[in-house]
Design brief:
globular; Alpha-D-Glucose-1,6-Bisphosphate, Chain A, domain 4; alpha+beta
Amino acid sequence: MYYETREKHPKEYLKTRYYIATFDEIVRVIRKVCETLNYRILNEDLTRREIFVEGDCSIVITISPFGREQGIDLNVDTYTFFDFGKGKRRIKEFYAEVAKHVSYKGVGLHGWTN
């Protein structure tokens, strides 16, 4: 199954999350979170603000900078047709782990994007 977070998603758990950090800080945090959650970083394209990781699912992490605030969106592929909630759990645990390292600001704060 495939899950994609975005700014105006009708499901709360699939909305963009925002954190108070610089771009460089959030990239360091994402690297640490990937290590903690046993994801291997396959590619970083910081010009496009994307990081591709793989573990028991694949995730494309997109960072949207808004000054001192960074939005994070996740595109998760669980490689299965029925994942029994695995994709939802991976999204929630990723966002929760990021919030352990930087200040969480909110969800879906910029309704004019996506």
